């Protein structure tokens, strides 16, 4: 154990220690236990702080501070970037390359900022800056900062010491104010220990001045304020502050804190802005004087202040709390305030406001507040304040609306940006200017809460009430625009409608008010609880309900829109206007149980009622629609103007209805035109009936309609004759000739009608009836009608009809034939009246082994069911000629319509062997399956195409949003399309269905397309592809094989990205697009195809052929097109004499006199295409036939149209020969000039020469192709007969034989324009020779009269054999090396042979 007292240490450690001695020292009490840990904690904190401070004073710390400064983003948007920091963070430092930016970018750069501050003093004595000097900075523009932190105190609540703040040599950039300036500014601030000292001095250049000083120290009885501010227009201060005018301000005074008096004067060149007396009496500050705010305020503020505002106020500022009172008085308003404002805490302390409206029209000319007053108390922080208020007025007026004694009171609460304004409004009588509702509005009230967030004003529920009226409305408005809107339900009970009765109504209200004149709109629904007007009951029946939209406003009449009135007899929709002067206008549409659908437009004027009624379909059987009847008062009657549409076309007329006192009523037809037929006459309406005659003339129609009393009733007689009459209804009608005779009487409800009719050439649309005859005899709706009709001449269509009629039953039987097949009706059509319509009993029609059954109802609601079994589609040609459809249809179609409504239908069809035949081609038969469903708003369809058992394609589609009216196609075209098409099969199955016979397309094709948009303007996405297509044309001989095509659908266009095929030994390639929009009504697809031909044989007819190279473009808008190109003709041939067999029949302009009426008119041809082709052929254009065997070059421009082409250019001879009557001539000159005539008729200039012993003959062809002139000349000169004898037979005409004479005669006849007898050339043509001639005897060679036959073998080799039939034979071969050099070899039976070289040259 160790001893209590430690021993003294030895001088040296012993060498051996038997045991270790441990010394224990007692710790001081402060370092023991928990005290040790507390001390350790504080020492650690102090150490961390010391380390942190040391770190901040290091370069790393400086960089950290610089980065924090750059990233600091205050609410104002000011950003500061420091390039480098030198010195101490807690004392003196230098900041280099400091950049100041606002939200718009850099506005000032300072290379050096010297700072000396004591940041640690912030915790004890506030802000302590000994110096802050910005040296040699550059100000590029004035800063544009955002509003700062809204909760920041207006006055600081801490001590401030800034010994020196300085801008040293600050340069204002030229771009800021147009010139460069130097600014020097020195300022200091010392707000501590009961003293406030602020002083600024600046040298700004120019006339700018800035000096300010505030020195206040109550304890030392020190107080002084001085300000000298001058900012001329365009100067530094004006530019910095954004002022557009010069402004100057001076504040000075004298005294001490106990009593200081001074003056504040703010002026502009045009006058003083403010002139105020200011003072301080021991801390009681005062201000009094006038402020002239003109130019600084506008709108409501300008009207409130007027030109001068009188200001008077006083208050004390202690501990940043301003306590006092202030009174201001302007032209439009007077405001008084008393209370306290905490400028450090940003709060009101029971601030009372009292405002009086001096100008009743302060809020605008359309808003008037009379004797208005506001009393309010404002309390709480600026962002959490409350305002207790009461607003009263004697009268509020907006337009014609007036509120008497309105009162609004409550507490307004602000929470940050949200204001809650209680609505507790009461008012006396309310006047709107409407005599219907004003008597009930004796008082009113409104309760709720209005919330304002920013510029947005809203209220969820405002309860408004008045006697008999209640509403729960929502408010939505904008403080920026000054306009607000109230919306919500309103209920009214026992509402009195003048001269009609009492009604209950519910409204959905929209009320707008504010800067704009007030306006009210309401959707109304209600019913008549009692009716006091018997006319209303007569027209509408009972159980009247109404609805619609009502609009009324300040200085505006009441407007009714979409008002509906529904009763037991009437369904009506109206728009109306009730003006303050009592005038009334009404316009609407409806349906009456007796008159059908109609529209009405009426007004009540001083001279009486004016009305226009339009009936949509008052008589469907006559095709009457859009019938307009206008009624206007005239002396002793009314003027009636009528117009509309009918089956016969549009009609228009003017009638006078006169009813003089004591005289009969009469109708005078001033004018009544039905299409091109005029109706005239006068009818007198007497007690026995109408009496008069109506004459019909014009438009191919002539006749009379006579009305006269007969047998105690009304008699009539019709006698009409038609001669090439025409009528222009929706589907035009034409009548070649017709005669109609009918008579009848109407007596006491009994009718008797007899008549007969005969017509030829009756056409309506595509339906054409060659002949029609009918006879009718009816009594009281019962009797028989017989009719027979036949189709166009040559159509082999005949039909006989027999109809037995009774008032409630019609029976029709038909029979006939078409194209050699019988049309029969095993079950006739029987129509039986059923209510307002007719019921069709099961009916059957048989044709060519097919069967059609029909059954349904016809009337306001029509339902027709059609069932087909193997019904040939060829029957469609009865209605539309030359359609050429083939196949048989089976399935079912159900058609449904509601009167004046869109139809609906269901269809399930199977068509076997669908095809179409044209003049040349017939499409490949395919099977088509179709399922379709039509509803008023949508069409859905699915179809599949098969070839036997193989599926070729499918189509499924949907068209929705169909138009509510119009033809079915128009409705479908307006709908939205969604469809898919997939097809993979032979192209001819689709191509030939379109009956496009100019070209034929065969081979496989694949199409995948998705359709959107509309039928009229489809949007298509998909692709088209094929390999192995073949395009042929029988007209041009074109045959393009192995076609590879690729295309994509984009929008309504098919973009053909590539097209390539083989044409002869050449190629055709290209690209383009096909536009499928706007098709229909005779318009085809738009086309823009660009092709490139390379040695392609595009024409290969019997009479001509051409192989070309070059670009081609085919453009069409669907109604015509253009074929353009710039081609180089590689080779071509033209065989004269064969054009008749290959060309189309000519279109000869003729005028037929007295044509048969039962012959259908010829369909007008399509619009022709234009040519825009330039063709150039340096050579290899071979022209043969009619004696020519030649090669040409050409440079042509092909213009005009396909119906009337024209050619401009010329063709020149390369080489060739001409055979005339068996004698060959060598062509020496050839020029064909095309002048652009249509049809082309070129000018000719051709010369050919033949040589023989002692004679040179030349044949010349001039004139035009249609009228050529051929002449012969010779050297030496000989008569024509002698020349021809020498040329053909080598001897004089006196020495030739009889066959030779015949040949000369034929040649002369041909030269002189006659046909003549030409057996030699006819034989040559028949056996296919190029030359055939008869040669005279030659004693020198022992040759008798011989026959010479020649044939070209290729382009350069010619062989000819001569024989006299008695042992002489000779063969000659000629090889043409060039145009001017030939090699000739001759072998004969007499042992002569040889080879010659022939050189020819034209001079």
From TrEMBL:
Transmembrane residue ranges: 37-56
Membrane topology field: Single-pass membrane protein
Protein's cellular compartments: Membrane
InterPro entries given in the database record: TamB_C (IPR007452)
One GO BP: protein secretion
Keyword Metal-binding: no
Keywords from the UniProt entry: Membrane, Transmembrane, Transmembrane helix
Pfam families associated with the record: TamB
One GO cellular component, as annotated: plasma membrane
Domain Translocation and assembly module TamB C-terminal intervals: 1061-1402
PANTHER family: TRANSLOCATION AND ASSEMBLY MODULE SUBUNIT TAMB
Name under which the protein is recorded: Translocation/assembly module TamB domain-containing protein
